[in-house]
Amino acid sequence: MSVDGCNTVLVLGGIRSGKSEFAEALVADAVTVRYVATATGGDPDDAEWAARLAAHRSRRPETWTTEETGDDPRRLADVLASAQPHETLLVDDLGGWVTVLLDPAHQPADDTVTIAELAEAVRACPARLVLVSPEVGLSLVPTTPLGRAFADALGSANRAVADACDAVALVVAGQACWLKRSDAPSAGAAGSPPVPSLVDPVPMDPAAPNGHRAGIPTQAGPSEPDAPVTAAPGGGAPLTEAALPEVLTPGVPPAARPADGAGWAAPTMTLPMVATGLVIQSGMELPLPDEYAGPQAVERLATRDVPGAGLGVLERVVGFAAATQGTPTPQPWGPVRVLLLHGDHEGGASAGSTVDESARRAAQARAGVGVLARLAAENGATLQVVDAPTAAPMEVGAALTAEAVESALRHGWRLAEEAADAGVHLLVLAACGAGTEAAAAAVLAATAGAEPPAVLGRVVRDGTVDDTAWMTRCATVRDALHRTRHASRDAKTVLTELGGGDIAVATGILLGATARRLPVLLDGPVGVAAGMVSRDLAGQARHWCLLPDDGGHPAVRLAADVLGLSPLLDLRLDLGEGANALAALPLLRSVLALSAALPAREDDAGPAGEPADEETPEFAEPEPAGPGPATTGSDDEERTDAPDRHAG
């Protein structure tokens, strides 16, 4: 199958949407397939129905075998249970299966129990399995009892099977979107369709390229295998798109660590990187967090048995997590990944800091030692060190080439996508590099009209304040702004002229995380500068960011005010960008765990003393927004007189 790591896949779609063709393409790499047909033969006089069945049969290769389960809906679970690990099964479709299940000839029958048995069989199936099912939940409520019974039963079956499957795809008008995936994607076997990300519509032609992503225009480009990701000096050659940095898992050291300072981290995975053809441009329409879940979560806290005045300012954490998770009962974030951006800036921007120092910090993180690695280990977070192109002196000329900016943006987007595919729930953006604060100040001056001296913090070197270095940085930013006074202030121009590689990669990370509905913790100048730039590309990005602490940095305070990111704490740590977020993370997780576990007040409890609302026991993955409000089954629902015939 083309979805590596996913043993079971559910393909949903409307009638004539192309769902069956897409499902067949998923198993095109199998030598032989057991095709499980669930529909009955139907009326022999119905020529149109017979033509549909014939069209399905004509598409199946000669090496496929067909098995009929239409006469007995309970037999489908037996077929799945008896499958062997080396087999590939394609079940088409659950609509026909539900039709037979509700047929009066099979009554009395407990469809709820039968659906549960099927879901359990799917979950336990050792074979590679693809199931096809119609999605009828977007249509109007049928007017007849039988039609409503079919829609309800099929909806229940789809939900139960989707929960049991590793991956779920929705096909609309010949385009597929992945709603659920349990593992990282791969390119698949030759001739199989490319594996899209959550927001990737893909064509039904198995040989077609991945043509669109997140509704963004794309351009095709060849892949560049085996080329390492490198940072080029002065002017920033583009990142070659071949391999992402290795992901490290820092570990907490024992009480008596060896004197040689052995590292705590070991690489866990390195994924290949292929060209996406992604075009990042202004005005992209990316997802927003759930606008209802956040307020509902805060309102729910008012019904909990909380002593005193409650959670105070930390209620905002609950609202943010609820909106980004899409549930009024958010759970503590699970897997966390720290992305440490290592990119230097040449010229006066780096006054008072050295390239050697930033390289030492990046090397420490790779070895699993140092402050950031230790904090990551304490939080059980993985760590990924990302090398960004070195920026040329901004006071002399452009920090990067336009090509390098495009490459850095795509590279950051890929880093966020890879984290989402690996099951990460939260990103922490960190940075180390000579001159990053001056570059961030230049970006803020260009995008928010700030005065450089007001957003440049004091330069401290070896415990001593270096005012000469601070004045050099101010003069550098002033000269760069004067040089670019007639240049456009659009996002890519700002990154090209002033921002540099680390801020460009950080911007791509924020955009990619937004596209994949992945929240991000910020706390330093590079992160907030990327937030300012991302406004022009996709204004939705800032709503997926949380600022635990501004660290007392003037640039962070200004950008936070412009972006509407009020800091939660005032730790004033000065341990490098990313450290504040990791230091605050245990507190944020504790608040979410507490809010989820708090009992209801006695006056809000049910008759048995249980909370009136239903708790969510597990981390709730955010769901893509539907095309319209869901029907509720009330007497005010819109109805239709359309016939109740349901084809599989």
Helix content: 25-40%
What's the total helix number? 19
How many β-strands, per DSSP? 18
Structural class comes to alpha/beta
Average of pLDDT: 78
How many angstroms does the end-to-end distance come to? 23 Å
Q: What is the radius of gyration? A: 27 Å
Shape: elongated
Which blocks of ≥5 consecutive residues have pLDDT under 50?
183-233, 254-276, 612-648
Kindly estimate the percentage of residues that lie in beta strands according to DSSP: 5-15%
Strand order of the largest sheet: 3-2-4-5-1-7-8
How many strands, which pairing sense, and closed or not: the largest β-sheet?
Answer: 7 strands, mixed
